[in-house]
Amino acid sequence: MKLDQELNQHGRDIIRTIEVVQSVAKLSNTAGDKFDSNGEELYTPPFNFAMVDNGIFRSGFPDTANFSFLKTLGLRSIVYLCTEPYPEHNMEFLKANRIQLFQFGIEGTKEPFVNIPEDTIREALKVVLDVRNHPLLIHCKRGKHRTGCLVGCLRKIQRWCLTSIFDEYQRFAAAKARISDQRFMELFDASGFKDIPPCPCSCSRRR
Fold this sequence. Notes:
Radius of gyration: 17 Å
Strand order of the largest sheet: 1-2-5-3-4
CATH architecture: Alpha-Beta Complex
Oligomer: single chain
Shape: globular
CATH superfamily: Protein tyrosine phosphatase superfamily
Number of strands: 5
Strand content: 5-15%
Distance between the termini: 33 Å
Number of domains: 1
CATH class: Alpha Beta
Largest sheet: 5 strands, mixed
Helix content: 40-55%
């Protein structure tokens, strides 16, 4: 019982952190200039950016305006969940910063014809759980459904309760939340995965 309470508290702490990061990201994204009044460069996070855990982040598709911000994270890897080829300018950014791309193509279909490939989610989770790939960014197009399902399955490995998992998912999906996504996360069998180990790198100090 005590362990369950601690795990649920951890879930609430992460969700509060997400709220703070999203508020900062919203303020940054409203800035029209590239530099502030002191001439300092403004960093613009990608849409729906948030911290998932130490060394793990999530967002919508990053564009050139977000590259300066992403450099501050010291990323080693990106987990990309769309089927489309990665844009050339994004690939150039990855090469220049020695960031490895892991692509797990999942079709961005809409309800009621949604097919979430569990095998693909499992393969992506292996990359996410490997601390050698941290710091790592997970993203799809809008950072809502495909990213939300992957993070939700990660939360099951972390033994979050379903209420906290769904609460986090809905914070990003908002009015576009899908019952099929939540059903997939609910039925996902996380027993074959070990709990995510603590990140040994200094990524938490880079934020």
